[in-house]
Amino acid sequence: MSDLPFETLTPDLILDALESCGLAPDGRMLALNSYENRVYQVGMDEGPMLVVKFYRPARWSDEAIAEEHAFVTELAAREIPVVPPISVGGHTLLHHQALRFALFPRVGGRAPELSDPATLEWMGRFIGRIHAVGALEAYRHRPALDIASFGEEPRDWLLANHFIPDDLLPAWQSTIDQALDGVRRCFDRAGSYTTLRLHGDCHGGNVLWSESGPMPGPQFVDFDDSRMGPAVQDLWMLLSGAREEMSRQLGDVLAGYEDFHEFAPRELHLVEALRTLRLIHYAGWIARRWQDPAFPAAFPWFNTQRYWQDRILEMREQIALMDEPPLWSI
């Protein structure tokens, strides 16, 4: 993949891509907050504005993107509040020159109030409905969330590409290895669990909250990281604060969730393990994209001496947390 994956994505090419679908853009264009892909809000000569997402080359296969689109479309057909891709000529994944892109309706909203018990319960109900559909079949072309892909592989990549400063390398490597041992113990304690199709990145930034309109409440957006995994992956990122506060928040989420889908309490053993894997994966994700000009601009603190020192301390905290009992006694 090119170090400049979007170097050809000029405004003229964006408009050409839209016109190739039979659309008539009016030239209004606003770049939205996205780093992995490139996403724009565009105006039309007639009708409402649309959102166009240009996919990062070589990240997902066409088949993997089509699976995600089919899942979100299925959720929307069941009146679950998600934002599905728009079909053009029977296709949701569109091509123009070497670009792959998709169109979405523009939806408004604000970030949800995750400190509000009623909001958490409301979101829990819809995540339960998403998971009830997600459990009906498995992805065939998208990967699973596991220790190898989210922990071991990014660790090995960071080491092979010499991102860790030499003077911190022994401490970083030993700490990461201890953390991954802790992750494995958490998975062992959880035992056998069911995997299903997830949102995969279900934090507050991927939920738009509306107080009015035809569908008030949460709208779940950006299923780009959707994959197979344990249900708790879509729940733990809604929790924050001290342990007691997270336990209360979890109770609020599950009060809604279990109206539509059964939750296996053994998965609570995975919460801190999944957080640890996300932290390791996140560092590897930024490092892999470091030659993309959008990343140094967005993450100027990355790859400094202080950054890696802080990651060592963060991992040591996670090692301790993973040996504590889960949020609820099992």
In words, what does this structure look like?
With 330 residues, the chain is an alpha+beta fold. It is built from 10 helices and 9 strands. The protein has helices at 11-19, 62-77, 117-134, 147-160, 169-190, 233-236, 243-257, 271-288, 294-298, 305-322; strands spanning 25-31, 38-44, 50-54, 94-96, 99-105, 195-197, 207-210, 217-220, 228-230. The strands form 3 sheets. The chain has a 5-stranded antiparallel β-sheet, covered by helices on one side. A hairpin with a 2-residue loop joins strand 4 (94-96) and strand 5. Helix 4 runs parallel beside helix 8 and helix 8 (271-288) packs antiparallel against helix 10. The chain is globular. It starts with 10 loop residues before the first helix and ends in an 8-residue tail after the last helix.
Share in β-strands? 5-15%
Low-confidence stretches: none
Structural class: alpha+beta
Residue-averaged pLDDT: 95
Summarize it.
α4 runs parallel beside α8, α5 crosses α8 and α5 packs parallel to α10. A hairpin with a 6-residue loop joins β7 and β8.
Structural key phrases:
330 residues, two-stranded antiparallel ribbon, globular
How are the elements arranged and paired?
Blueprint: H1 11-19, E1 25-31, E2 38-44, E3 50-54, H2 62-77, E4 94-96, E5 99-105, H3 117-134, H4 147-160, H5 169-190, E6 195-197, E7 207-210, E8 217-220, E9 228-230, H6 233-236, H7 243-257, H8 271-288, H9 294-298, H10 305-322
Antiparallel strand pairs: 1-2, 2-3, 3-5, 4-5, 6-9, 7-8
Helix pairs in contact: 3-7, 4-5, 4-8, 5-8, 5-10, 8-10
